Amino acid sequence: MKPINFNGKRRSLLLASALAVSVSASAFLWLSPKTELIKKDFTVAEKQYTQLLKTSTDLTAFPRTTNKDGSVKTTDVWDWTQGFFAGSLWYIYEYTNKPEWKAAATKWTEALEQAQFLTQHHDVGFVMYCSYGNAMKFEKDPVKLAQYNKILIQSAESALTRFDPKVGLIKSWNAKKSWDNKTTWQYPVIIDNMMNLEMLCYVSKLTGNPKYKDVAISHALNTMKNHFRPDFSTYHVVDYAPDGKVLHQQTNQGYADNSTWSRGQGWAIYGFTMMYRETKDKRFLEAAQKAADFYISHPNLPKDKIPYWDFNAGQKGYTPDFDYNANKLSYIPRDASAGALTASGLLELSTFAKNGNKYFKSAEQMLKSLSGSEYLAKPGTNSGFILKHSVGSLPHNSEIDVPLIYADYYFLEALLRYQKLQG
Ligand code: GLY
Known about the structure:
Number of domains: 1
Low-confidence stretches: 1-15
Protein name: Glycosyl hydrolase family 88
Radius of gyration: 24 Å
CATH class: Mainly Alpha
Helix content: 40-55%
Distance between the termini: 53 Å
CATH topology: Glycosyltransferase
Strand content: 5-15%
Bound molecules: glycine
Pfam families: Glyco_hydro_88 (PF07470)
Mean pLDDT: 94
Family: Belongs to the glycosyl hydrolase 88 family.
Shape: globular
Signal peptide: 1-27
Largest sheet: 3 strands, antiparallel
Order of helices and strands: HHEEHHHHEEEEEHHEEHHHHEEH
Active site: 123 (nucleophile), 192 (proton donor)
CATH architecture: Alpha/alpha barrel
């Protein structure tokens, strides 16, 4: 073997290659701030949901939020939030690729099987698409795939039972009293209902039968016509007569009939973006962008871009019909669930809109805020949920400033979308 000559050219060559090796090694170890953030959040998610899985062993009781004593509050299979736990488990599996998360996700998805027959309200799309819809991305077993698809087709049939062609929309709730007890809503449709349409589009693709997607399009077009105000803020509830005439435009979970409930505005941004993806109808893209512009440029949106529970809470010109003071709050709570789902919607919107970068940047700010100690739970706290500070329904004095399972779900979804986008 020839001895190494440490003089002249040979030495500088050696030094240069040593440097190159160390640079490429550190480049390999270096994670961008974005990757670091996503990694940190999923580390917290894994810890928290390990805890939640330990405390949630009854497959008929789906984690939703916390009770005052810190125990986990659950719902049964006929509510609207029961699909988000399975969905969150699928997202953790998507990020980690660890088989134990797939096993847990499968178990909690299959626990929802009977909800395919949910017809007493509109939320079957939320429940079944966040769970079985996500399962379709990861399940390889053809027998299971066929079974899941059959369940999704029945779920879409259940949704269609609530569609009256004369009205042109899926009825959200059966006739009921308005929140102020002054009106009886006959055919109430809420902005949230946009989120049930993705499953219908999927089932049309799956079966080749356009009827499901046709209903989705009809619903979205009528929602576009009647839920938006001229500034593209949204009414929460629109009530219809049997011939499709608009009877009332009100709220149920917002501050006042003329206010903008933050989560509802988020549902609009997300829902119309999704309908644009599914149809390429430019009207949906325009609606999504205008709703998003209202949201991100609103003077009451705090700097961290996590909204108050209602954009107009406590403001002059907005008169609540519930006793706002009865909630005995000394502050206006934020709604992290609205922040999380809006971040997810904006990230998708950023891929379609010409000026998409402003939506991307806003979403990025939302995710950074939600990843800070103000919103992200310290592992071992928050009863196993990931995010703090959401609001279910303040007028009903229910779930105020608590963790909510759907905040976690959309947060994880947004992180995964963020991971896939360059900005
Ligand atoms: N979809 C019900 C809610 O957002 O509270």
